[in-house]
Design a protein that fits this description.
Largest sheet: 4 strands, parallel
Radius of gyration: 26 Å
Strand order of the largest sheet: 3-4-5-6
Distance between the termini: 57 Å
Strand content: under 5%
Helix content: 55-70%
Number of helices: 26
Structural class: mainly alpha
Number of strands: 6
Number of domains: 3
Oligomer: single chain
């Protein structure tokens, strides 16, 4: 097989060459496990989007199978996710369910085109403050849509916009249901305990089965899927092609582009998580083609938009998945539930599903990134804050558009500020000597990489050369920043992730030669917390001197450990 052909083949095909019985057993266990985890999530996302629970199940079945079969990731799990809840609800409210189906198919076509034209890495041009901003906003909106079911409020209709929704909750607060609130709070406690003390046990499964059994056996008076939706229909969904006409397509293009970009970002973020956990490397273009085909097919069976699901992907890897076959088994597990156990699903309490979505909203919020953003420049903070606020009070499409425009303007401003015209003096020449590598010996225990030019969003994948060869590098890595003219929050996050990867491999990272703008941003963000203040040097001369010190400590530590082993061996004699 030629490398050119392999670059466009799905991961499932590439991994069939050495597939065996042991891998199948691991995939079988993982697939069934993640299928059970996906059951309540798929229904909850559909309900939160204003659709029937079976729409989420149909989406998880169809897209889960296709994404695993045709995608470019080894253990990625696809299906409906929280990121789409706000967008889907807005599209349904404005264009109806048929408009959603058309929009999803359009987004699928855009994803296929992105992948087929080699633009799988194009999503890197979304700056970190924009991504964090709309992720925070989506998490807040998802949590706000679950307040009615979490507390069992008696409401005929939940308004679509945030402020009217919160006002409606305030008017209905006197109808709070103690049984529903008890189930919700107990569900939260169970999931938090599982996340903290028993990560291998999926809390969503315990909550779903435990709450359902409790409600059914004790006849607890709370709303269930059966009381609100009449249950889940058994059997396969019918194939139906949504009506297409020019005017609807024209109106939906902006929303379709948002769905496609959001799906691409979350899919590739999930694929990166999969890579880190399974020690593999995904193919971004093939992954987007698989995601696109899945989104084209999903509406034909009444399904929602789909993307890579980070939590389910992590569960899949932790459960022992070896290949994409696990993802296909996860879809078949959900299909079996729909075919043979649909009558039981109607007893699932909505309070438990609301609790699950509250945890999902908290986990997807990227809240730990906020302190990092607040340490950056005022422009980055403004982009993040405005994107988050617009996501909450307007809609995601508008928020992302405004965020990208602001980020572009910030980009231009940062690049323009790095352009200087200065006179070369004798002092300048003398000061430059400590930054020049020429004439300096690089020892065998160290290697030097340099960043040349502005390191802003859109450039952060350049570290792949270091990360791909990390296992073969010497124990000390020096990153020379002398020619890095500017950096932003996204670039700084990439350097932070590089530092984490280098340290995780048992190596040391030393930074040197940062110019005024990068040095100031690193100071504001307290970057020394990630590498140590002693490992941020003024010049490459200082960095090489620091590398010699680190190497000496490493040698001394190794000799001390060896001596301890020898002494221990003698004592045992």
């Amino acid at each position: 097989m030629t490398p050119a052909l392999a670059a466009w083949l799905p991961k499932s095909v590439l991994m069939l060459r050495d597939y065996d019985r042991h891998k199948f057993l691991s995939d079988l266990i993982a697939g069934i496990t993640v299928g059970l985890v996906a059951l309540p999530l798929a229904m909850a996302f559909a309900i939160a989007s204003g659709l029937s629970p079976q729409a989420g199940l149909y989406c998880a079945i169809v897209t889960g199978f296709i994404i695993s079969a045709l995608g470019g990731s080894k253990t990625q799990i696809g299906g409906p996710t929280g990121a789409f809840v706000v967008v889907v609800a807005g599209i349904v409210a404005k264009f109806g369910i048929e408009g959603l189906f058309v929009c999803t198919m359009m987004a699928g076509v855009i994803l296929v085109l992105l992948g087929a034209t080699g633009m799988g890495t194009a999503v890197k041009y979304f700056p970190r403050p924009v991504v964090i901003g709309f992720t925070n906003g989506i998490a807040i909106l998802i949590a706000s849509t679950q307040i009615r079911d979490f507390f069992g409020l008696q409401m005929d209709h939940v308004p679509g916009d945030f402020f009217h929704r919160m006002e409606a909750y305030g008017r209905a607060w006197h109808t709070i249901s103690i049984p529903a609130m008890t189930i919700s709070l107990a569900s939260i406690v169970v999931m938090v305990v599982c996340l903290k003390y028993a990560k291998k046990i999926p809390g969503a499964i315990l909550v779903t089965f435990g709450a359902t059994g409790l409600v059914y056996l004790l006849r607890v008076p709370v709303e269930t899927i059966g009381t609100r939706f009449g249950g889940i229909p058994s059997g396969l969904p019918t194939l139906a092609i949504p009506p297409l006409h020019y005017e609807l397509v024209r109106q939906l293009f902006s929303s379709a582009f948002t769905v496609a970009m959001l799906g691409a970002i979350e899919s590739l973020m999930s694929a990166v998580v999969s890579d880190r956990m399974s020690h593999d490397k995904h193919n971004p273009n093939v992954e987007l083609i698989g995601q696109g085909i899945a989104n084209i097919v999903s509406p034909l069976f009444g399904g929602l938009p789909a993307t890579g699901a980070i939590a389910r992907t992590a569960t899949n890897v932790r459960a022992g998945a070896k290949t994409p076959v696990a993802g296909m088994i996860h879809a078949l597990t959900l299909l079996a539930i729909v075919l043979f156990a649909a009558p039981l699903v109607k007893h699932v309490p909505l309070a438990a599903l609301a609790a699950i979505l509250m945890i999902v909203a908290y986990n997807m919020g990227e809240w730990s990134e906020i302190p990092e953003i607040l340490r950056h420049s005022k422009a980055d903070i403004a982009v993040w804050l405005l994107t988050m606020m617009l996501t909450v009070v307007t809609d995601l499409t508008f928020a992302v558009e405004v965020g990208m425009v602001l980020a572009a303007l910030t980009f231009i401003r940062k690049v323009s500020r790095t352009t200087t015209v200065t006179r070369v003096t004798k002092d300048y020449v003398a000061d430059s000597q400590v930054h020049i590598l020429e004439g300096k010996d690089i020892p065998e225990y160290a290697t030097v990489y340099r960043i040349h030019g502005p390191f802003l969003f859109g450039s952060t994948d350049k570290f792949s050369e270091i990360l791909d060869s990390l296992g073969a590098l010497p124990p000390i890595v020096i990153l020379r920043l002398r020619n890095m003219t500017a950096v932003d929050a996204t670039g700084l996050a990439a350097i932070r992730e590089l530092a984490d990867a280098v340290h995780a491999s048992g190596r040391s990272l030393i930074l040197c030669g940062a110019r005024p703008q990068p040095a100031e941003l690193m100071r504001q963000s307290e970057f020394e917390r990630h590498v140590g203040a002693e490992n941020i040097c003024v010049s490459v001369t200082d960095a090489l001197r620091r590398a010699e010190e680190v190497h000496g400590v490493r040698v001394l530590s190794a000799e001390t450990r060896l001596a301890a082993v020898v002494v221990g061996h003698r004592d045992n004699k």
